[in-house]
Design brief:
Blueprint (H helix, E strand, L loop, with lengths): L1 H9 L4 H45 L7 E6 L4 E12 L7 H4 L5 E10 L5
Length: about 120
């Protein structure tokens, strides 16, 4: 009985071939998931930054890190509010982002026109 069990354990047909296929496939899957996660986080941050900029421009309540840019000519100047938002991207494949020469951070900008207050 031990001889049959030992003979069965020594027979490893297909194990090396399976490993040669599954490891690169798993790495490719994780790279794709990393790109999808980073893109979705950037899109969500962009929507949040734009919403924050619009809400602050309407309410006239600005944060210290907000930028207010004045654009316009001699008659009337238009004020534009610029907000920034950034988050770190989760790393599914360790070292992938550093290998590509980037930083694992999404940095987006929200822009809104500050309406003048009528008194």
């Amino acid at each position: 009985m031990f001889a049959r069990l030992r003979k069965h354990l020594k027979r490893e047909d297909g194990n090396v071939e399976s490993a040669l296929v599954i490891i690169p496939l798993m790495i490719l899957f994780l790279i794709g998931a990393q790109i999808i996660a980073a893109t979705n986080m950037r899109n969500a941050d962009l929507a949040m930054a734009q919403g924050d900029a619009a809400a602050r421009a309407i309410s006239q309540e600005f944060h210290p890190d907000d930028e207010i840019v004045e654009i316009g000519g001699r008659v009337e100047k238009i004020r534009v509010l610029v907000t920034h938002r950034s988050h770190t991207v989760p790393q599914l494949v360790p070292g992938l982002i550093e290998l590509m020469g980037g930083a694992p951070v999404t940095d987006v900008v929200g822009v809104a026109v500050v309406e003048p207050i009528n008194k």
